Amino acid sequence: MGGSVGSPQVIGLLSERLRDCIALQWNCSQARSVIISQASNGLRELSEEVHGAVLAYADLIAERVEELGGVVDGTICGVEARITPFRSSAADRGASAFSRLMSDVLWEFDRSTRRSIVTLNMLGDTVCVDLMLEVASGIDQWKSRIAAHHSSGSAGVA
User: Fold this and answer.
1) Could you tell me if residue 3 is inside a domain?
2) N or C terminus: which one in the chain shows less Cβ crowding within 10 Å?
3) Residue pair 35/42 in contact by the 8 Å Cβ criterion
4) Which of helix, strand or coil describes residue 104?
5) Which domain holds residue 92?
6) Residue 129 and residue 105: Cα distance in Å, rounded?
7) Measured between alpha carbons, how far is 101 from 98 in angstroms, rounded to an integer?
């Protein structure tokens, strides 16, 4: 595909991933605001990295939607169902709660991204496939760091 006008299916799929990006940013912010004072420097850095990178991915996806002739809706209003509530009780606060939440939301974000890659590949839009592969690569790095934290049982992130 790669042209200036895309199929409604491609635009719709990218719009869904854009909403996923917004939800992931919101989840990162919510978790950070609840437990960041108790988290390690490594988890704080990971949270900032994920938040910043997801913002960049959202911008790339939004640009592609516009290139394809779609309308970008980048508001929190459309993502309420994707936001993972973070329980803030004293027993559930801290680095391990943060890493559990991040792990959960990253796995869901990864699943939707990889499903999109398959669909976009079937639709023949190689530009969008490359974009989603870039997103998936970032997710893989974050998941690896979270997994290292879980396996070490420490408050830091590798």
Assistant:
1) no
2) C
3) no
4) helix
5) 8-152
6) 22
7) 5
